[in-house]
Amino acid sequence: METGALGSALDIRSDEGTRDHVHGFHSYPARMHPITARRLIEQLSPPEGVLLDPFCGSGTVLVEGLLAGRQVIGVDANPLAIELAWLKTRTSTDGGRREILEGARAAVAFADERRKRRSGATHRYGAEDVSLFDPHVLLELDGLRAGLARMSASATKRALFLVLSSILVKVSRRPGDTAPSEAPRRLASGFTIRLFLKKTEELDFFGLGGFEELGPFEDFYSARAAGGAAAGKGNRSRGLVTNVDQGSAFGHFDHGVPAKDVSLEMDRGHEKRA
Fold this sequence. Notes:
This protein is α/β, with parallel strands linked by helices and 274 residues long. Helices cover 45% and strands 15% of the residues.
């Protein structure tokens, strides 16, 4: 049965379903194909069972597990992966999505005003950042980062830093996430700021909104036990995502994610960080 399930799961078109709802939000190396994940989940896990992905990456298996009616637990050593999995699997509301869009517009206005005034960077960037981005692009990214940093700590702020993360490779001199080579980019002034707003709108309307329309998802309680993670029915959560790494960092900017042990309990009304 396992051999047949694997063969069926791999019999897919490479582009099928990869841009659906939250799957297309943010690039991530070596992601599992969503349809492969769904078919394996449906064939190899019990209905309404608990699904553990010990290397959850950006959350593809967790998302497909929720869509298949499973309770999900994800673990990863990369703080960026944890944040992405949190965003993709959390409940969103019309009001919450409006807050994300309003926050993005405020950050865009702040960054664009700095661009028009030709303000300098808010702090000195390292050689890697300087080599990866054209000077005007780096200044626009810096303005967006500074605009988001002014926001109070919230789920909206976390989501918008992930939007910022999602456009980095699109405006950098590297052609891909893992590509070592660099090539010139001809980007107009203000393009990076406009791209940030466009990406937020896509996340709001097609990503989070599209995923929420596929629910409702079963509520369940999840909590990390002393020796690992446990999940059971009750309360109002979707899943547990935890980071067990003690010293990793990511990206070219400070995304506000601590490089230490992070546990994210994703409740419908709030998020806890332990």
